[in-house]
Design a protein that fits this description.
The chain is α/β, with parallel strands linked by helices and 269 residues long. It contains 8 helices and 7 strands; from the N terminus they run βαβαβαβαβαβαααβ. Helix 1 links the parallel strand 1 and strand 2. Keywords: Oxidoreductase.
Amino acid sequence: MAAGGNLEGRTAFVTGGSRGLGFAIAQALLERGAKVAIAARDEAAVKAAAGRLTAGSDARNVLPVVADVTDADSVDSVLAEVHAWHGALDVVVNNAGPQLTPAPLDKVEDETVASAFDTKLIGYLRVSRAALPFLSRTGSGSIVNVVGATAHLLIPNAGATGIVNAGVVALTSYLAAEAAPANIRVNAISPGMTKTEGWLTRTEAMGRQQGKTPEEVRAGMAQALGIRLDRWAEPAEIGAAAAFLASDDASYVTGQVLRVDGGMTKPVA
Protein backbone atom coordinates (compact mmCIF):
# COMPACT_ATOMS: atom_id res chain seq x y z
CA MET A 1 0.00 0.00 0.00
CA ALA A 2 1.03 3.61 -0.48
CA ALA A 3 2.56 5.37 2.50
CA GLY A 4 3.16 8.87 3.81
CA GLY A 5 -0.03 10.35 2.43
CA ASN A 6 0.91 9.14 -1.05
CA LEU A 7 -2.11 8.17 -3.15
CA GLU A 8 -0.22 6.94 -6.22
CA GLY A 9 -2.08 4.28 -8.13
CA ARG A 10 -5.41 4.97 -6.49
CA THR A 11 -8.68 6.04 -8.05
CA ALA A 12 -10.92 8.56 -6.30
CA PHE A 13 -14.42 9.88 -6.89
CA VAL A 14 -15.52 13.30 -5.59
CA THR A 15 -19.11 14.55 -5.73
CA GLY A 16 -19.71 18.28 -6.06
CA GLY A 17 -16.21 18.45 -7.50
CA SER A 18 -16.65 21.33 -9.93
CA ARG A 19 -16.17 24.11 -7.37
CA GLY A 20 -15.60 25.03 -3.73
CA LEU A 21 -14.51 22.39 -1.27
CA GLY A 22 -15.10 19.55 -3.72
CA PHE A 23 -12.69 21.09 -6.21
CA ALA A 24 -10.11 21.72 -3.47
CA ILE A 25 -10.37 18.12 -2.28
CA ALA A 26 -10.06 16.78 -5.82
CA GLN A 27 -6.97 18.95 -6.29
CA ALA A 28 -5.40 17.63 -3.08
CA LEU A 29 -6.01 14.01 -4.08
CA LEU A 30 -4.62 14.64 -7.56
CA GLU A 31 -1.50 16.35 -6.18
CA ARG A 32 -0.85 13.26 -4.04
CA GLY A 33 -0.92 10.98 -7.05
CA ALA A 34 -4.51 9.78 -7.29
CA LYS A 35 -6.52 9.63 -10.47
CA VAL A 36 -9.68 11.59 -9.73
CA ALA A 37 -13.20 11.51 -11.15
CA ILE A 38 -15.21 14.62 -10.33
CA ALA A 39 -18.98 14.75 -10.52
CA ALA A 40 -21.51 17.56 -10.77
CA ARG A 41 -24.92 18.08 -12.35
CA ASP A 42 -23.69 20.79 -14.74
CA GLU A 43 -21.73 19.21 -17.61
CA ALA A 44 -20.09 22.46 -18.72
CA ALA A 45 -19.01 23.30 -15.17
CA VAL A 46 -17.54 19.88 -14.42
CA LYS A 47 -15.63 19.82 -17.72
CA ALA A 48 -14.26 23.30 -17.04
CA ALA A 49 -13.18 22.21 -13.56
CA ALA A 50 -11.41 19.18 -15.02
CA GLY A 51 -9.53 21.52 -17.33
CA ARG A 52 -8.40 23.65 -14.39
CA LEU A 53 -7.31 20.58 -12.43
CA THR A 54 -5.20 19.22 -15.26
CA ALA A 55 -3.70 22.50 -16.47
CA GLY A 56 -0.06 21.70 -17.21
CA SER A 57 -0.48 18.03 -16.33
CA ASP A 58 -1.85 14.80 -17.79
CA ALA A 59 -5.55 15.23 -18.59
CA ARG A 60 -5.96 11.45 -18.42
CA ASN A 61 -5.72 11.65 -14.62
CA VAL A 62 -9.07 13.46 -14.27
CA LEU A 63 -12.46 12.20 -15.39
CA PRO A 64 -15.37 14.68 -15.42
CA VAL A 65 -18.75 12.97 -15.05
CA VAL A 66 -22.30 14.24 -14.83
CA ALA A 67 -24.34 12.89 -11.93
CA ASP A 68 -27.35 13.85 -9.85
CA VAL A 69 -27.02 12.54 -6.29
CA THR A 70 -30.80 12.76 -5.82
CA ASP A 71 -31.29 10.16 -8.57
CA ALA A 72 -30.35 6.58 -7.62
CA ASP A 73 -30.10 5.45 -11.26
CA SER A 74 -27.75 8.34 -12.05
CA VAL A 75 -25.59 7.49 -9.03
CA ASP A 76 -25.45 3.77 -9.85
CA SER A 77 -24.53 4.50 -13.46
CA VAL A 78 -21.76 6.97 -12.67
CA LEU A 79 -20.15 4.73 -10.02
CA ALA A 80 -19.99 1.91 -12.54
CA GLU A 81 -18.45 4.33 -15.06
CA VAL A 82 -15.83 5.52 -12.58
CA HIS A 83 -14.90 1.96 -11.59
CA ALA A 84 -14.57 0.95 -15.24
CA TRP A 85 -12.29 3.95 -15.90
CA HIS A 86 -9.26 2.22 -14.34
CA GLY A 87 -10.86 -0.98 -13.12
CA ALA A 88 -10.59 0.17 -9.51
CA LEU A 89 -12.10 2.45 -6.91
CA ASP A 90 -10.26 3.35 -3.71
CA VAL A 91 -11.60 6.64 -2.41
CA VAL A 92 -15.07 8.21 -2.40
CA VAL A 93 -15.59 11.76 -1.15
CA ASN A 94 -19.19 12.77 -0.51
CA ASN A 95 -19.33 16.54 -0.80
CA ALA A 96 -22.35 17.52 -2.94
CA GLY A 97 -24.88 19.50 -0.94
CA PRO A 98 -27.15 22.54 -1.17
CA GLN A 99 -26.50 26.07 0.01
CA LEU A 100 -29.37 27.00 2.28
CA THR A 101 -30.58 30.53 2.96
CA PRO A 102 -30.15 31.32 6.68
CA ALA A 103 -33.47 31.23 8.52
CA PRO A 104 -34.90 30.12 11.88
CA LEU A 105 -36.47 26.67 11.83
CA ASP A 106 -39.99 28.02 12.34
CA LYS A 107 -39.63 29.96 9.09
CA VAL A 108 -38.10 27.19 6.95
CA GLU A 109 -40.40 25.48 4.46
CA ASP A 110 -40.80 21.72 4.73
CA GLU A 111 -39.79 21.38 1.09
CA THR A 112 -36.50 23.19 1.74
CA VAL A 113 -35.54 20.85 4.57
CA ALA A 114 -36.67 17.77 2.64
CA SER A 115 -34.63 18.83 -0.38
CA ALA A 116 -31.55 19.36 1.79
CA PHE A 117 -31.92 15.90 3.31
CA ASP A 118 -32.43 14.37 -0.13
CA THR A 119 -29.40 16.06 -1.66
CA LYS A 120 -26.89 15.78 1.17
CA LEU A 121 -27.79 13.10 3.71
CA ILE A 122 -29.64 10.66 1.45
CA GLY A 123 -27.37 11.66 -1.44
CA TYR A 124 -24.34 10.60 0.60
CA LEU A 125 -26.10 7.33 1.39
CA ARG A 126 -26.94 6.71 -2.28
CA VAL A 127 -23.35 7.31 -3.35
CA SER A 128 -21.88 5.22 -0.54
CA ARG A 129 -24.29 2.36 -1.18
CA ALA A 130 -23.47 2.37 -4.90
CA ALA A 131 -19.73 2.61 -4.22
CA LEU A 132 -19.39 -0.17 -1.64
CA PRO A 133 -19.45 -3.07 -4.14
CA PHE A 134 -16.63 -1.40 -6.11
CA LEU A 135 -14.40 -0.15 -3.28
CA SER A 136 -11.12 -1.95 -2.70
CA ARG A 137 -10.99 -4.51 0.11
CA THR A 138 -7.17 -4.43 0.27
CA GLY A 139 -6.99 -1.58 2.80
CA SER A 140 -7.11 1.33 0.37
CA GLY A 141 -10.91 1.55 0.36
CA SER A 142 -12.09 4.72 2.06
CA ILE A 143 -15.15 6.98 2.19
CA VAL A 144 -14.80 10.58 3.37
CA ASN A 145 -17.94 12.59 4.10
CA VAL A 146 -17.91 16.39 4.22
CA VAL A 147 -20.05 17.56 7.15
CA GLY A 148 -20.01 21.15 8.44
CA ALA A 149 -19.62 23.11 11.66
CA THR A 150 -23.37 23.42 12.21
CA ALA A 151 -23.40 19.73 13.19
CA HIS A 152 -21.45 20.61 16.34
CA LEU A 153 -22.21 24.26 17.11
CA LEU A 154 -25.45 26.18 17.52
CA ILE A 155 -25.15 28.91 14.92
CA PRO A 156 -28.12 31.29 14.63
CA ASN A 157 -30.46 30.68 11.68
CA ALA A 158 -28.54 27.56 10.59
CA GLY A 159 -30.84 24.93 12.09
CA ALA A 160 -31.84 23.32 8.79
CA THR A 161 -28.20 22.90 7.80
CA GLY A 162 -27.36 21.70 11.29
CA ILE A 163 -29.86 18.86 11.42
CA VAL A 164 -28.82 17.63 7.98
CA ASN A 165 -25.15 17.75 8.98
CA ALA A 166 -25.90 15.96 12.24
CA GLY A 167 -27.47 13.21 10.17
CA VAL A 168 -24.24 12.92 8.17
CA VAL A 169 -22.30 12.45 11.43
CA ALA A 170 -24.60 9.54 12.35
CA LEU A 171 -24.36 8.13 8.82
CA THR A 172 -20.57 8.18 9.10
CA SER A 173 -20.61 6.24 12.37
CA TYR A 174 -23.06 3.57 11.25
CA LEU A 175 -21.49 3.15 7.82
CA ALA A 176 -18.02 2.83 9.37
CA ALA A 177 -19.24 -0.02 11.58
CA GLU A 178 -20.95 -1.80 8.71
CA ALA A 179 -18.07 -1.37 6.22
CA ALA A 180 -15.29 -2.40 8.62
CA PRO A 181 -15.61 -6.16 7.95
CA ALA A 182 -14.92 -5.38 4.27
CA ASN A 183 -11.75 -3.50 5.29
CA ILE A 184 -13.26 -0.18 4.17
CA ARG A 185 -12.82 2.89 6.36
CA VAL A 186 -15.46 5.65 6.66
CA ASN A 187 -14.67 9.05 8.17
CA ALA A 188 -15.74 12.66 7.86
CA ILE A 189 -14.23 16.11 7.86
CA SER A 190 -16.13 19.05 9.26
CA PRO A 191 -14.83 22.29 7.74
CA GLY A 192 -15.26 25.71 9.29
CA MET A 193 -15.14 29.06 7.50
CA THR A 194 -13.21 28.57 4.26
CA LYS A 195 -12.22 30.98 1.51
CA THR A 196 -14.10 29.25 -1.29
CA GLU A 197 -15.24 31.14 -4.38
CA GLY A 198 -18.75 31.42 -2.96
CA TRP A 199 -17.64 32.89 0.35
CA LEU A 200 -15.17 35.27 -1.31
CA THR A 201 -17.97 36.64 -3.47
CA ARG A 202 -20.30 36.87 -0.48
CA THR A 203 -17.83 38.70 1.74
CA GLU A 204 -17.04 41.13 -1.08
CA ALA A 205 -20.75 41.98 -1.31
CA MET A 206 -21.01 42.28 2.48
CA GLY A 207 -17.99 44.57 2.45
CA ARG A 208 -19.57 46.90 -0.08
CA GLN A 209 -22.72 47.11 2.05
CA GLN A 210 -20.76 47.76 5.26
CA GLY A 211 -18.08 50.03 3.83
CA LYS A 212 -15.37 47.49 4.65
CA THR A 213 -12.86 45.42 2.75
CA PRO A 214 -13.62 41.71 2.29
CA GLU A 215 -10.65 40.98 4.56
CA GLU A 216 -12.17 43.12 7.30
CA VAL A 217 -15.50 41.33 6.93
CA ARG A 218 -13.85 37.94 7.24
CA ALA A 219 -11.77 39.07 10.21
CA GLY A 220 -14.91 40.30 11.97
CA MET A 221 -16.67 37.01 11.33
CA ALA A 222 -13.69 35.04 12.61
CA GLN A 223 -13.82 37.02 15.83
CA ALA A 224 -17.59 36.68 16.18
CA LEU A 225 -17.40 32.92 15.64
CA GLY A 226 -14.64 32.52 18.20
CA ILE A 227 -12.15 30.96 15.76
CA ARG A 228 -9.07 30.36 17.89
CA LEU A 229 -6.63 30.63 14.98
CA ASP A 230 -8.27 33.98 14.13
CA ARG A 231 -8.49 33.40 10.39
CA TRP A 232 -10.40 31.55 7.71
CA ALA A 233 -9.14 28.31 6.15
CA GLU A 234 -7.57 28.14 2.73
CA PRO A 235 -9.38 25.56 0.55
CA ALA A 236 -6.13 23.60 0.28
CA GLU A 237 -6.14 23.08 4.06
CA ILE A 238 -9.53 21.37 3.83
CA GLY A 239 -8.33 19.33 0.88
CA ALA A 240 -5.27 18.19 2.83
CA ALA A 241 -7.45 16.95 5.69
CA ALA A 242 -9.62 14.91 3.33
CA ALA A 243 -6.53 13.50 1.61
CA PHE A 244 -5.10 12.50 4.98
CA LEU A 245 -8.21 10.50 5.87
CA ALA A 246 -8.11 8.86 2.43
CA SER A 247 -4.46 7.85 2.79
CA ASP A 248 -2.60 5.13 4.67
CA ASP A 249 -1.55 7.73 7.23
CA ALA A 250 -5.10 7.23 8.54
CA SER A 251 -5.11 3.44 8.10
CA TYR A 252 -6.25 2.90 11.71
CA VAL A 253 -8.89 5.66 11.68
CA THR A 254 -12.55 4.96 11.01
CA GLY A 255 -15.89 6.29 12.22
CA GLN A 256 -14.34 9.64 13.13
CA VAL A 257 -15.20 13.26 12.38
CA LEU A 258 -12.17 15.53 11.98
CA ARG A 259 -13.08 19.13 12.69
CA VAL A 260 -11.03 21.41 10.43
CA ASP A 261 -12.37 24.72 11.70
CA GLY A 262 -9.47 26.59 13.30
CA GLY A 263 -10.88 25.88 16.76
CA MET A 264 -14.32 27.45 16.24
CA THR A 265 -16.06 28.02 19.59
CA LYS A 266 -19.16 29.99 18.70
CA PRO A 267 -21.41 30.38 21.76
CA VAL A 268 -25.18 30.12 21.48
CA ALA A 269 -26.54 33.52 20.49
